[in-house]
Specification:
Layout (H helix, E strand, L loop, with lengths): L7 H14 L28 H10 L2 E6 L8 E6 L7 E5 L4 E3 L2 E3 L3 H11 L8 E6 L2 E7 L5 E2 H6 L7 H18 L9 E3 L5 E3 L23 E2 H8 L3 H8 L7 H23 L1 H4 E2 L1
Helix pairs in contact: 5-8
Length: about 280
């Protein structure tokens, strides 16, 4: 069983720090998404080819590794692959399930986040698998290039061409973070490609038994699109357990559904207070 190290005060501080790291999403507005033959190319190369990328990651030859320059712990390495495959680089995580600097981390949380992302049809978490490397169990995730993280976007004062779509994706990402109890969400873990698609990385501290939700509903998260809300509400525990049960510690699936139920209840209460059309958007 995974043991919780944090006390209530620590939980509050961790959640507050997480909220401070990422700006709140703004209310939705109706506006068309950018399109046309000259639109930038998406970095989400895995969409529609998930099985191919998963098989590739399980067998690709890793020629060397080195440390990342920012945004990740020492338990994560930048992996370089033998040329000629579906991808040239990846993120290799070696954190065996356990406590590091007071936080529970696990390399297995990366493929768990990817599998849950697939169940929810979110398409934000890049393919990640568990495999062996140098005789130990690790996770390997494709490295997504040609992106800017949220911190750089904020520092450089860049603005998405479609604020509606930007907010739409941030709301989904924040609800996903609440669902998996991502206390380590920060501006370097939210990446945007040339089309301003949001890509989520580094979920190593997710899927604990904690019930904390980093983005409080009604404060930092006050709207969500109805299709995604319905998919979260319809999550089936047996299906989730089958998909990620072998990757998370005992009790983590139960905690995920406790958080899910709290999220649904909070949104439905907010809809009664403000009106469904103000909370749930198409």
């Amino acid at each position: 069983m995974r043991r919780m190290l944090w006390r209530s005060v620590s939980l509050t501080l961790a959640a507050a720090a997480c909220l401070a790291a990422s700006p709140p999403a703004m209310p939705f507005q109706q506006a068309p998404a950018p399109a046309g033959p000259s639109a930038p190319v998406s970095s989400k190369v895995w969409i529609g080819r998930n099985a191919e990328y998963e098989a590739f990651l399980r067998t690709v030859e890793i020629t060397r590794t080195e440390g990342f320059k920012k945004g990740v712990t020492g338990k994560t390495k930048h992996a370089f692959f033998k040329p000629g495959g579906l991808a040239a680089e990846g993120a290799l995580r070696t954190a065996r399930p356990g406590f590091y600097d007071g936080f529970f981390e696990s390399h297995q949380s990366e493929p768990a986040a990817y599998r849950l992302d697939r169940l929810l049809e979110l398409d934000m978490v890049p393919p990640a698998v568990e495999r062996q490397y140098n005789g130990e169990a690790v996770s390997l995730q494709i490295f997504i290039g040609n992106t800017r993280d949220l911190r750089d976007i904020t520092v450089q004062k860049l603005h998405a061409p479609d604020p509606t779509r930007w907010n739409y994706e941030l709301h989904r990402a924040y609800m996903f973070d609440d669902l998996v109890a991502n206390i380590d969400d920060n501006a370097t873990n939210l990446m945007f490609d040339p089309q301003w698609n949001l890509i989520k990385i580094d979920c190593s501290r997710c899927f604990t038994n904690m019930l904390v939700q980093p983005f409080e509903i009604g404060t930092k998260l006050s709207q969500i699109d109805r299709p995604f809300f319905d998919r979260v509400k319809a999550l089936d525990k047996a299906t989730v357990a089958r998909e990620i049960g072998d990757l998370v510690e005992g009790g983590a699936v139960d905690a995920l559904f406790a958080r899910r139920n709290a999220i649904i209840k909070a949104f439905e209460k907010l809809a009664m207070q403000k009106g469904a059309s103000q909370v749930f958007v198409p």
